[in-house]
Amino acid sequence: MSGGVNLAQLRALVAVAESGGFGAAAGELGISQSAVSHAVAALERAVGAPVVHRTGRVRPTPLGEQLLPHARAATASADAIAVIAARHRGGPAGTVRLAAPATVCQGLLPGLLGEWRATHPRVKVRIFEGEDDELAAWLATGTVDAAVLIDPDPAPAGSLQLAQDSMHALLRRDHPLAGQPVVDIRDLEDDAFLLSEGGCERHIREIYRRIGARFTPTHRIRDVGTLISMVHAGIGVSVMPALANAMIPAGCVLVPLLPRVTRRLVLTGPADRPWHPAVTALVATAGGVPGG
Predict the structure, then answer these.
(1) In angstroms, rounded to a whole number, what is the distance separating the alpha carbons of residues 203 and 247?
(2) What pLDDT, in 10s, does the model give residues 200-244?
(3) What is the distance between the alpha carbons of residues 229 and 234, in angstroms, rounded to a whole number?
(4) Which of 186, 192, 200 is nearest to 237 (CA)?
């Protein structure tokens, strides 16, 4: 190496990798784009090779990918030290990167964020929206400091169950069953079924397993917004968690479903390393069921 690696260089690498560009990274870090570029260039001189591709879409090189977990760990540790010091001076502070599924971001987090702002005004929460099956990996690699996981087994020590959410039938409002108090999944067998591949598939398969029926979706759709739009257009029906109600347009309705299948929404930090102190403070004031 031609020089030492410092924390500012590692922060720049993490920001560029996560935001996908130097300009966006500058906004995240609150410095100029030139400063970000200089920090990454200095890191490259220190390690003796490029750490990001600058042509086309900005992304880490293979060397950059190897450095990222360590860069995230180093910056997270530095942030944790700052938070501990701030807490010693009078309460938690710092930035917490929190990942959650789209339904949780829409239906649960707005209220929590307001509560956290009032309780911990020096803690900034950055939301990362992802699919159910992505969140645990983000937490494990240090991409985020905390996550709302679906049915973690086991839940890490210190976790908090925020809510229990049941699966509902998503129907257009003029569907013959839309006005019923509850819908049996068997009554939807003549409808085209739209499957969200974002993470609810295992819960839907559990519903069909309980009635001993084969599950054969007509369409597979990754984006939840697209799925809702297709149901709204009359293309078919679907099954979504009740928490998705905040995303449902006036022309659609969620109806409780039989057999009843629920999912647990658990707020947690990583299982294999110390939690960011501000995460502990957020969990302690979120309300819910301790232990996940």
Answers:
(1) 19
(2) 888 899 999 999 988 889 999 888 889 999 999 999 999 999 999
(3) 9
(4) 192
CB hemisphere CA count around 93 (13 angstroms) = 13
Read off the DSSP letter of residue 245. Answer: G
pLDDT band at 127 (very low <50, low <70, confident <90, very high): very high
Secondary structure element (H or E) that encloses residue 194, with its range: strand 194-196
CA nearest neighbour of 217 among 237, 188, 195: 195
Q: Which residue has the higher pLDDT, 92 or 261?
A: 261
Q: What are phi and psi of 208, to 5 degrees?
A: -70, -35
Phi, psi of 54 (to 5 degrees): -100, -10
Q: Which amino acid is at 2?
A: S
pLDDT at position 178, please?
Answer: 95
Radius of gyration of the chain (CA): 22
**Which pTM was predicted?**
0.68
What does the pLDDT read at residue 290?
62
Q: What angle do CA 19, 200, 219 make, to 5 degrees?
A: 95
CA dist., res. 182 & res. 184, Å (int): 7
Question: For 124, which DSSP code?
Answer: E
Written as six digits, the tokens of 128 are 């990362």
Sign of CA dihedral 234, 237, 239, 245: positive
The answer to whether the CB of 269 falls within 8 A of the CB of 152 is no
CA–CA gap between residue 193 and residue 213 (Å, rounded): 14
Cross-strand bridge partners of residue 194: 219
For residue 49, what pLDDT is reported? 94
pLDDT at 26: 87
Exposure string over 25-49, b if 16+ CB within 10 A, otherwise e: bbebbebeeebbbebbebbbeebee
